[in-house]
Design brief:
By secondary structure, this protein is mainly α. The protein is 58% helix and 10% strand. It is built from 10 helices and 3 strands. The protein has a 3-stranded antiparallel beta sheet with strand order 1-2-3, covered by helices on one side. A hairpin with a 6-residue loop joins β1 and β2.
């Protein structure tokens, strides 16, 4: 049965010319894994959407915060695009009602799993870029993301360990922390990523169900250790 995507299009502020792109953005790898007729999933669009969202966020923050320093803008962009915020956005626009999941993933609560919601939000951004270019992606950003900035500006940044780690490293004479995926384990629809962060002449590792969350956890370990008072 064909789904009616009008509700989600209204929620994101953009109407797709090619509905198949929106459908693909909402197709979890577990669905393709379990259905022979499905020849693709949302991972490629997620990859594109991650880059597009980062660029659009950076451009908006640059244009609307003329007095902000690089570190301030980096922190705010990171907090706006981190998995937890993306999952909240995904839930608020009703993505869980439209996700195409495999039976096992659906049974195990995949429709409300934060990593699935976050991935789908990024995939939708990527799909909009393919469907209508920068104008389409910016329409979604204006409708969905800009209102979130008001809740982030002027609040605590403790939930942004990557931004905190970058600021710490640069203030102590080191470059931008380097993140590297050193291991990917598990089936395609239930991957575990192990990420290593190198900074301040040290290394830390963490594992999670998404690269972004693994990076966040590795950064959290790093900033926690580096912030400890020296004996």
């Amino acid at each position: 049965m064909k789904l009616n995507y009008r509700a989600i299009e209204q929620a994101i502020g953009y109407r797709f010319r090619k509905k198949a792109l929106l459908e693909l953005a909402l197709t979890h790898p577990s669905f393709r894994y379990e259905n022979a007729e499905a020849n693709d999933d949302n991972q490629r669009l997620e990859y594109l959407g991650d880059a597009v969202l980062s660029l659009i966020s950076a451009e908006y923050l640059f244009d609307h915060n003329p007095g902000a320093r690089e570190g301030e803008m980096s922190k705010l962009r990171s907090r706006l695009t981190e998995d937890r915020k993306l999952a909240q956005i995904g839930a608020s626009i009703g993505i869980n009602d439209f996700l195409k999941l495999g039976r096992g993933e659906e049974k195990n609560g995949g429709a409300t799993r934060p990593s699935n919601l976050a991935d789908a939000v990024e995939a939708i951004i990527g799909a909009a870029w393919v469907d209508g270019g920068a104008r389409a992606a910016n329409k979604i950003f204006k409708k969905v993301f800009i209102p979130e900035l008001g809740t982030l500006q002027g609040t605590s940044t403790q939930s942004n360990p990557k931004g905190d780690l970058q600021e710490y490293a640069q203030s102590h004479g080191f470059g931008v922390p380097a993140y590297k995926t050193i291991e990917t384990a598990g089936p395609e629809h239930a991957r575990t990523f192990t990420v290593e962060v190198v900074t301040c002449s040290q290394k830390w590792q963490a594992a999670a169900s998404s690269k972004r969350e693994a990076e966040r956890l590795a950064a959290l370990q790093a900033i926690t250790d580096l912030s400890k008072p020296t004996p």
